[in-house]
Design a protein that fits this description.
The chain folds into 2 domains: 9-15 and 27-138, Jelly Rolls, CATH 2.60.120.10; 153-199, no CATH class. It contains 1 helix and 12 strands, in the order E-E-E-H-E-E-E-E-E-E-E-E-E. The protein has one helix spanning 29-34, and strands spanning 9-11, 16-18, 21-23, 43-50, 54-60, 67-73, 75-82, 93-99, 105-108, 112-118, 122-129, 138-140. The strands form 3 sheets. The protein has a 5-stranded antiparallel sheet with strand order 1-9-6-11-4, with no helix packed on it. Strands 8-7-10-5-12 form a 5-stranded antiparallel sheet, with no helix packed on it. A two-stranded antiparallel sheet has the order 2-3. Strand 2 (16-18) and strand 3 (21-23) form a beta hairpin. Residues 153-206 have low confidence and may be disordered.
Length: 206
């Protein structure tokens, strides 16, 4: 099922349920390839988080990863932001509720920042990656995910500069590599070097 950004795909697998429980295929290479999810996937990850946890927004610049995300316990609001320069949807985002109950998956292609907020007491998330984790290439954006914001709108009110998460120290202020402001991220309009330019709605937050 395509989203407002066609390259981001939401999958609703067939679930076969009976009195014993249920069965489903969580990945089938040929069928997923037919819907634009080519892979190959080379690493599987599993996280467990408590209510209110925000993970992301994360991306790898030198070794971008595609991710196929699903939830096996609880519920999350999952978000993908297009950061591919030259893309017609550059700077726009989509979000989807993924839960153990709805069985939905979301495919986030390489070149997107990805993150999620936990909206249940506990959430366990599994995701497949098209490239290996590389701490030297991993970066993060500082921002806020708001479920009330409209998907497909431009990202704003946070600095989209990438901050290598493995080099941050809690004892030292963090500087934005783009606007050089410390501690609080600059708004998009305030950061002259910000790669995401103001669009129709500068009040939309992520």
């Amino acid at each position: 099922m395509p989203t407002d950004i066609p390259d981001v795909v939401v999958i609703e697998p067939d679930v076969h349920a009976d009195g014993r429980g249920f069965f489903l295929e969580t990945y089938h290479a040929d069928r997923y390839r037919e819907h634009g999810i080519a892979g190959p996937f080379v690493q599987d990850n599993h996280s467990r988080s408590v209510a209110g946890t925000l993970r992301g927004l994360h991306l790898q610049i030198r070794r971008p990863q595609g991710k196929l995300i699903r939830v096996i316990e609880g519920e999350i609001f999952d978000v993908a932001v297009d950061v591919r320069r030259g893309s017609p949807t550059f700077g726009r985002w989509v979000g989807e509720t993924l839960s153990a109950g709805n069985f939905k998956q979301m495919y986030v292609p390489p070149g997107f920042a990805h993150g999620f907020a936990v909206v249940s007491p506990i959430a366990q998330v599994e995701y497949k990656c098209t490239d290996l984790y590389d701490p030297r290439a991993r970066s993060a954006w500082r921002g806020t995910i708001r479920r009330s914001a409209s998907p497909g709108r431009s990202v704003s009110r946070f600095c989209p500069s990438v901050i290598p998460s493995t080099r941050r120290s809690p004892s030292r202020p963090t500087s934005c590599r783009t606007c050089n402001r410390r501690e609080s991220p600059a708004s998009r309009a305030d950061c002259d070097q910000n790669p995401i330019r103001p669009q129709s709605d500068p009040a939309t937050n992520l």
